[in-house]
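[step 3/7] fold_predict: job queued, chain A
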Amino acid sequence: MPNLLEKSLPSYRISRCQSSVTTFTAIIMPIRLFRLLLLFTLVFTPVYSQAQTGWSGMLSSVLKTGQALTITDEQLAETVREAIEVMDKEYAVCSPNNKYTKRLSKLTKNMEYVEGIELNFKVYQTKEVNAFACPDGSVRVYSALMDILSDDELLGVIGHEIGHVALRHSKKAWQWALLRSAASDAIGAVSETWSNLSDTVLGDIFSAAITAKHSREHESQADNYGYDFLKECGMNPWAMGKAFMKLKALSQQKNNSRIQKWLQVFSSHPDFDTRIEQMRLRAQEDGYETDDL
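[step 4/7] structure written:
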């Protein structure tokens, strides 16, 4: 399998700002940023007024919110890594000799980097149906999801999740999670490195980030990334549509304990039927067979 993740897929290259724009932004942003932070704090501070009152509390919240908005890629990666370490301890990580780990390792062989971010893969042994990829390159797949998807379908879903990282959607989700934590004053003392956060806070940030709803546009972009991902791997990209069909069927089962928040989020923007049809049309235009399950 080619190491296709060493470069971006051409359709989704992210442009860089010119240096002149960056200089202008550096001058103007402090004023706009302060106004935004003050408005954000005025809106959210009353909710937590019983825990923290007065101008000193508001100023602390403003400073923390400012850090969340201006956090660097390195600082974010450090926070994400710490959160993933907490989750890896909370869930049962499959050993290297486990059948799920061997299957995932075979599927992701030679997938080392995306947008310069080093990828690392692990499987959680659990009845939950889930998969996620984080801005630091951590990709986690739940064993229950692997039980219901074929190899190409699973790879399509993984491609979709990696697409959110490559297209910077995941970074925005984690920034929003940090904003929520800062607004609630959960982070505590202001820290320039976002280090030394408690496991509880890291767990809350993690949960908020991976269950954050992406926009319809972002979900469609990630779907197309997964489709092209499968093509680059030499597989029929219609597997994306078939994966959606299986997840749709699972989401319609009542009282199914395996239906988690991720599945609800995954199916909402846009709905499964729309996404299935989009994948079908792309596959047919590209000359692939589009048989149903």
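[step 5/7] annotate
The radius of gyration is 20 Å.
Residues 72-285 form one domain.
exit 0
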